[in-house]
């Protein structure tokens, strides 16, 4: 039996939910932008972007997790993606984030990625998570560090080439750090 | 955790079972994608691209409500290929596509799989009289298209590659 998990997570400003077909255009605009998508994976055209979008849903089916669509709660508009991904050939599952251009500067990546990470620890039972960051992506490094992650090592990624692996605090560290 | 079912119907023929996907299918998909056999369907491709294609094949069912099945050889349980309806972004309209893996050619299995998929799609998915994109260099697939009573409709481009559009007969006319 093939099935998709039925998940909806909320934060102050965001809804994290499974992607739907109508979210594709916003993702596609991002994925075709050679500058903004450089750290995530630039797609060469719309059909290739669609393949990634479809493959993310397949990832949800096979693993029970994947990238959420982040929805801006006030308007319902897709404002980015965040979630847990475990691609073939990757060193281990990672947490990733992307914020679309019109939604920059609102703290969305931090708010969404924190919620997705908590979900992965509390609901999926992950005990550790990584983020793989392309050297030079200083904004993602800054966010990883704001999320409490630290640089662990450099390695050669099957898709992206050389990447920096950041290690996130585990569930116990996060619990202990709460006020 | 609650879940939402994704319906991939199970179809049976004399020698084959057409079914949904499981993680173990990936190695057969990767072997096909790495081989020259995939040259007419975008290959040969890297293991990474095969993984993406594998997951996208599952996601296709969610986005479109139909897609490609895995073909399982009933008597051995081996995975023999994939068949079904493809409507990726960039396609003019939904097509019936087939990938037949090494060792399963020349036994009429592709024909059996195509008939089962085509009939089901016409009766239950409102996809009747569909097309198949076939490379003019793919002799085996051209022969199969003729055997399936398709007619050559026009030449076209698909993802930058020249190919032929073959039109299937409508259900009841075949």
Brief summary of the model shown:
With 179 residues, chain A is α+β, with helices and mostly antiparallel strands. Chain A has five helices and nine strands.
Task: Explain how this protein is built.
- The complex is a heterodimer of chains A (179) and B (174).
- Chain A is an alpha+beta fold and 179 residues long.
- Chain A has five helices and nine strands; from the N terminus they run βββααβββαβαββα.
- In chain A, the strands form two sheets. Chain A has a five-stranded antiparallel beta sheet with strand order 2-3-4-5-6. In chain A, strands 7-9-8 form a three-stranded antiparallel beta sheet, with helices on one face.
- In chain A, helix 1 (24-31) packs across helix 2 (46-63).
- Chain A starts with a strand and ends with a helix.
- The model of chain A has no long low-confidence stretch (mean pLDDT 94).
- By secondary structure, chain B is an alpha+beta fold.
- Chain B contains four helices and nine strands.
- Chain B has helices at 26-34, 47-64, 109-124, 139-147; strands spanning 3-5, 11-12, 16-19, 68-73, 79-86, 95-100, 131-134, 151-158, 161-167.
- A five-stranded antiparallel beta sheet of chain B has the order 2-3-4-5-6, sandwiched between helices. A three-stranded antiparallel beta sheet of chain B has the order 7-9-8, covered by helices on one side.
- In chain B, helix 1 crosses helix 2.
- The longest helix of chain B is centred in the N-terminal third of the chain and has 18 residues, at 47-64.
- Chain B is globular.
- Classes of the chains: A alpha+beta (179), B alpha+beta (174).
Topology diagram in text:
The complex is a heterodimer of chains A (179) and B (174).
Chain A: E1 3-5, E2 8-10, E3 14-17, H1 24-31, H2 46-63, E4 67-72, E5 78-85, E6 94-99, H3 108-122, E7 130-133, H4 138-146, E8 150-157, E9 161-167, H5 171-177
Antiparallel strand pairs in A: 2-3, 3-4, 4-5, 5-6, 7-9, 8-9
Helix pairs in contact in A: 1-2
Chain B: E1 3-5, E2 11-12, E3 16-19, H1 26-34, H2 47-64, E4 68-73, E5 79-86, E6 95-100, H3 109-124, E7 131-134, H4 139-147, E8 151-158, E9 161-167
Antiparallel strand pairs in B: 2-3, 3-4, 4-5, 5-6, 7-9, 8-9
């Amino acid at each position: 039996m093939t099935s998709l998990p039925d998940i909806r997570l909320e934060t102050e400003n965001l809804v994290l939910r499974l992607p739907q077909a109508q979210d594709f255009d916003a993702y596609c605009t991002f994925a075709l932008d050679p500058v903004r998508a450089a750290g995530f994976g630039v797609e060469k055209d719309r059909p290739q972007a669609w393949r990634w979008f479809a493959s993310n849903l397949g990832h949800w089916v096979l693993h029970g997790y994947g990238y959420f669509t982040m929805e801006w709660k006030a308007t319902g508009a897709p404002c980015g993606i965040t979630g847990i991904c475990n691609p073939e050939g990757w060193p281990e599952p990672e947490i990733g984030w992307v914020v679309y251009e019109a939604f920059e500067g609102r703290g969305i990546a931090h708010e969404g990625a924190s919620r997705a990470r908590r979900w992965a620890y509390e609901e999926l039972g992950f005990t550790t998570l990584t983020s793989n960051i392309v050297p030079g992506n200083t904004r993602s490094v800054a966010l990883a560090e704001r999320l409490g992650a630290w640089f662990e090592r450099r390695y050669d990624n099957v898709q992206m080439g050389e990447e920096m692996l950041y290690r996130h605090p585990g569930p116990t560290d996060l619990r202990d750090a709460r006020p | 955790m609650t879940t939402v079912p994704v319906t991939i119907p199970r179809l049976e023929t004399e020698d084959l079972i057409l079914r949904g996907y499981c993680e173990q299918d990936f190695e057969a998909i990767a072997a096909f994608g790495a081989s020259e056999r995939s040259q007419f369907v975008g290959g040969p491709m890297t293991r990474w691209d095969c993984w993406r294609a594998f997951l996208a094949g599952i996601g296709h069912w969610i986005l479109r409500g139909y897609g490609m099945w895995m073909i399982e050889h009933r008597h051995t349980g081996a995975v023999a290929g994939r068949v079904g309806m493809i409507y990726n972004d960039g396609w003019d309209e939904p097509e019936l596509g087939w990938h037949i893996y090494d060792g399963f050619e020349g036994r009429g299995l592709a024909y059996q799989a195509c008939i089962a998929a085509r009939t089901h799609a016409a009766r239950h998915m409102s996809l009747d009289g569909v097309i198949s994109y076939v490379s003019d260099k793919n002799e085996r697939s051209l022969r199969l298209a003729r055997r399936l009573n398709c007619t050559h409709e026009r030449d076209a481009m698909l993802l930058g590659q020249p190919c032929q559009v073959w039109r299937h007969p409508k259900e009841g006319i075949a």
